[in-house]
Amino acid sequence: MTILGIDTCDKTAAAAIMTDGKVTAETAFVTGRTHSQVILPLAKRCLQDVGLSLSDVDVFAAVSGPGSYTGLRIGIAAVQGICYALDKPCVGVSALECLAYGVSAFEGTVCAVMHARQRLMYNAFFSVSGRQVHRLSADCITDAEELVRAMGAYDDVMVTGDVSLLDLGGIRCAPELLRRRSAASLCAAAMQHEPVTADRLLPDYLQITKAEKDLLG
Question: Which end of the chain is more exposed for a tag (fewer CB within 10 A), N or C?
Answer without folding.
Answer: C
